[in-house]
Give the backbone structure.
Amino acid sequence: MMGMCLRALMSHWRRNGAQVLALVAGLAMATALWCGVQAINAEARASYDAAAGVLGEGQFDQLVPRDGDRIALADYVALRRAGWQVSPMVDHREGSVRIIGIDPLTAPPGLGGVLALSGPGQGVTARARAGVFVHPRTRDSLQVQLPVTADPAVPPGIAIGDIQAVQRLAGDDHLSRLIVLPTQPLRQGELQKVAPTLLLLKARQTADIAQLTDSFHLNLTAFGLLSFVVGLFIVHSTIGLAFEQRRSMVRTLRSLGVPLATVLGAMAAEMAAFALVGGGLGVALGYLIAAALLPDVAATLDGLYGAQVSGALQIRPQWWASGLALAVGGTAVAMAGHMIQTARMPLLASARPRAWVMASARQAQVRVGLGLALMAAAGLLAARGQGLMAGFALLGCMLVGGALLFPILAGWGVAWASARSKSAMAAWFWADTRQQLPGLSLALMALLLAVSANVGVATMVSSFRVTFVDFLDQRLAADLYVQVDTAQQSAALDQYLQTRGAEVLPLARTEASLAGQRVEVWGIRVGQTYRDNWVFLDATDRAWDTVQAGQGVILNEQLARRQNLWVGSTLRLTGLPTLPVLAVVGDYGNPNGQVIVGEGLFHSAFPNTPALQFGARTATPSALAADLIRDLGIDENAMVDQAALKGLSLDIFERTFLVTGALNVLTLGVAGFAMLMSLLTLADLRLPQLAPVWAMGQTRRCLGGLELGRALVLAVAVFLCALPLGLGLAWVLLSVVNVAAFGWKLPMFLFWDEYARLALYTVLAAALAALWPVRRLMSLPPATLVKVFSNER
Amino acid sequence: MNVKLCLLLIFLPWAAVAQGFSGLGSQADGFAVPAPNPQFDFPADHAAHPDYRIEWWYLTANLQDAAGQAYGLQWTLFRTALAPGDEVGWGSPQVWFAHAAVTTPHRHFATERFARGGIGQAGVQAAPFRAWIDEWSLAGPNFDHLTVQAQGPDFAYDMQLTAQGPLVFHGQQGFSVKSAQGQASYYYSQPFFDIAGQLVLPDGPVQVTGQAWLDREWSSQPLADSQTGWDWFSLAFDSGDKMMGFQLRDTRGGTFSSATWITADGTTTPFVDGAFVADPLDSHTVAGRDVPVRWRVQLPAKGVDVTVQALNPDAWMDLSIPYWEGPVLVDGSHTGQGYLEMTGYD
């Protein structure tokens, strides 16, 4: 009986190929976008780990030579024998390939550890021991007299081998650096005594960047979810249509004695099959999307870590499984209401198809009520909500509430226009538009969501970039950074730099504790660089002057939020006089609280803490660096030229732009598709409305033009509503979700040219969606239109 | 598997776990092979034998603090060679690794070290005796007077050892047969060490005293291919007698056993396969494995029928090569204490 029932149900799809297409394509596109975003995120994260893992940079403290680039073997052994758990590394370069020699016995777990080999036991040969491992793509560019084992898990551009093999290649027995393992024994000798020629470098502060990118990934995930919701709207409307059209079939089946449970079971099985097929296609499509976009992401990592990262996409269960689960779950949600309706349908009720498109007034009321309730909840959450979940709930309430209210707003707009229409044709146009609104409402909601998501993400990404650029300018303002060890060197360097006429930015730092939490205290020399570059979130007038005079402090945002200390509050910190807070500065990604005071105040409060870090403004950083090495004997490794670093970091965001831009186009495509499907469905149902107008003398061409015009008008209406909704969304992402997740707020900027472009895309998507139905209408045989009158009920 | 692991496997062929416990059943290609009737040359033989594939300096101790609380201590230096011989520099085929552990009735601390040969990071010299890896060492003017130290992230120890008796030789004058096919090793011990010193534990330093047992063994293929692991007992009875006994388990469930009876004056009696019997009584789940932590141990020829019980059943050495090793208490026909090592329980 089940088989019979299924066959009967399936006959519907056979007759309505477009619906099958809409359902499967809707599911596939929704899943594809979700999967694509997930895959990119997963791959990017894995790549960060890979890059950090291979090089051990940023992840571990390191010992490097104070002078030159060589460490003697004796120093390594002396350190090990003094209880220092360190592991040697040799850096060598052959052409464009960076070759890293490690000692696998002492290397920390995780160093090179994310690189999976294709099979166990592979490479455990004398050939491999004496050789190096490289990515297959790098193999050809590496011309060395060593056995080379290709391994796709090694990042391109890098070769890894045993220290002995790499030393032999370099023709040199030196070590380049020592990785300090994270776990050290209870007792160890003092570094100064054991290896005075080595300098301990703390793990590079990549935490800042990691947190920035984490925040970016979080927002991207939210974006993926929104795209999925858009896709679900298509699925929901298609399923709704199918259920409505099959009411009579269900009634017939049940009249023939098929139990309700069998009918419902068959429907559920059928939908599950659709979900799996659509979801599966979506996963495949998502893979393609991600594969197409990933090289850009991979390229950004090149800049971030100075390491090339494999642009190859791996199929990771976390994204394809979550994509399939979402497809099945989404279908279940879309189907649930209709299943209940079918279950409750009186057996002997009229089989006349209840025109699903003409939603009853009561349904509309319910929708408005729900929309208003969700908006109220959003308002409440915005005012009172705390934490990440509240942030996401706020996001959901706002979007769904906005979407639900849209048809009502559009209805009002049309009524308003209708009341002002002068000609009969215009009056008919608006009346007809109003008539169509309920049928198009789901598609319009999908478009609304897509456009607001795009407005939101464009705002978020652009704000993110502006903030990041400012932040880099602010924090990497000086051209050359120099680190010294002693007060004597500090004074000498200060004097030297001043005689060179450079603007000198000494930085003295110490630690204090405030309410049990570690706080950094910075003493700075207030100068033009700070005044020009630092962007305050909030500040009093003449904040810098007051800081210079030692009359107040600047706090970073993290400390301000944590301690609820804002401009106008006073800070009581042991060792410092009680001082007013003059300004709060954004400090993205830094987990620690920071108090910034003037140089004079710092030295009177902490006389034994000299400035050990110096920034210098100079047009010729490399020349200055060379002079410092020559004249003051500063270690080469104690200086950093920041221009290169900054340039690379900025490059990242240009590339992420490409990625999000592509995603924008894709979501709009999905929404346009939803609209196309709705218009196609409506086209047949609308003949009774169009035929009289045609009969009264309007050409089909004119009717077609009006149809197109309507789609455009609706698209503009959608955009006008989506803009505030999208900005609200961006605000939630930047000011609520980010604060909850990371403790700092990204300032929001508006990008009108971006929005104008989106408006154009929206209208374009609607026009493209309307084109096919309009063409069909224009070429409709007059006989079909005439038939409407013969069939008139 | 990753590149680091792959490189590691290149250096630690025993970790490939192809055959036998940790690959100890490998072929002896190119390496020297132990022969019967050895003539030991001391102190030279206390140092490393790079022509043999594997070698160890294995110290275990049963300790007590002033309040009578029992502790166990382990210090082991292993040498494994990729090829016979040695050379200076990173190209040396010698690989060193070491394990240190302290066991209390409720806690077990274990840590390990690795080093390449040829660069001075680890090694053993005969006179004055010095075995070291990183900052860990077992050293002294001679083999009878030693200090031992090791540390990890959460524990450390510094101990002094004084031998109260002679070296003892297992098997046939130090030629210890390990299988019916004739695989063998050179094996002698110093089971008569008095030990005293300080343990540094998370709760603070503890002064302890006790007895220690040092094993020296080297070979090139001590296990047959079918042997999967061993249970090794070193027991010191309150009567003053001591007993070393082990059984090697094979894939078919059979065993190959061997034992040495050591009287208080150092006189030894070797026992061949079958004389020594160890049957597990209770097992305990540790690190996801079922490990027997209570045994019935018999050496009928000496009237030994005792129950051997772990002081701390959780004495699992969760290291690159995992195994169980910890102090035991002995009850039954004889009473006393000792150490138990169990390998190959996967």
User: Anything to note?
Assistant: Residues 1-50+223-356 of chain A form one domain. Residues 112-127, 205-209, 300-309, 350-359 of chain A have pLDDT under 50 and may be disordered. Chain A touches chain B through 48 residues (CB under 8 Å).
